[in-house]
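The protein record now logged underneath.
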Amino acid sequence: MDTCYILEKWIQGTSKLFVKEGSRLSTQNLEVSATQVTFDFDEDLMFRIPNLFPVVSLMGRLILTRNADTGLITTTSKQTNWMEF
């Protein structure tokens, strides 16, 4: 994340942006090491736009870089392989 957010505010913001019942997320190929967490994802996101409710499908790989001493995530990178509108 480029900006530091309070977790509660982030959850409130995404709850207002997406429709939970119309969205889906699945993950696979989870790999965890002292310096990195990676997994493949496949998701459908339904946007909360009245009368439209468009769904965007995404597939890709998420890479979370960790501090080896603390285990805390320091950077994120999303490699999106495919998008459909």
